[in-house]
Amino acid sequence: MENVNDIPKIDYGKCTGCMACAMTCPGLAIFLVRSAGELGYITLPYEFLPTPNIGQLVTALDREGAVLGKGKVTQVLSPKRNDGTALVTIEVPERWLLEARAIRVGE
After folding, report:
1. Could you tell me the domains of the chain?
2. Which H/E stretch holds residue 32?
3. Which of 21, 41, 46, 72 could form a disulfide with 88 if both were Cys (CB 3.0 to 4.6 A apart)?
C-alpha cells in the first residue's frame, strides 16, 4: 500500500503464508481464512489483553458484533515488533469463514 487509507492488495503469487501483512497492517484490515472440510480456520488481528490461550473457547462475532457461536483458539502469534499486532487463529464451522471477523474472550 502506498497510503494507509488504500485498500490492501495481496499478490498471491508471492504470498508465503507468513502472516506478516496481517501482523503489521495499521488498519487491522487483513485476516486469513483456510477451509479444512467441515471446519475452517480464521486468523484475526487481536489487540486486547489478556491474549487468549491455545485451546481456549472464545465467542466468534460477525462484522456487526452479533454472536455466531463458540470457536476454539488453535494458534496465537505474538507481534515480532513492539508496534505490531498479535494474531489469533480460531477453529469454527466452515460456514462461518466469510462471516466471523472478531472474537470475544472471557465468557
Report:
1. 20-104 (2.40.30)
2. strand 32-36
3. 46
Distance set, CA 11 to CA 8, 34, 46, 97 (Å): 10, 17, 24, 21
98 pLDDT exceeds 80? Answer: yes
SS3 46: strand
DSSP string for residues in 33-87? EEEETTEEEEEEEE--SSPPPTT-EEEEE-TTS-EEEEEEEEEEE--SSTTS-EE
Residue written as grid cell 486486547? 48
**21, containing H or E segment:** helix 20-24
pLDDT in tens, 38-52: 999 999 988 888 889
Q: Could you say which DSSP state residue 43 is in?
A: E
Summarised one tens digit per residue, pLDDT across range 67-83 is 999 999 999 988 766 66
- Residues 6 or more apart whose CB falls under 8 angstroms from that of 63 comprise 99, 101
CB of 90 closer than 8 Å to CB of 71:
yes
pTM of the model: 0.82
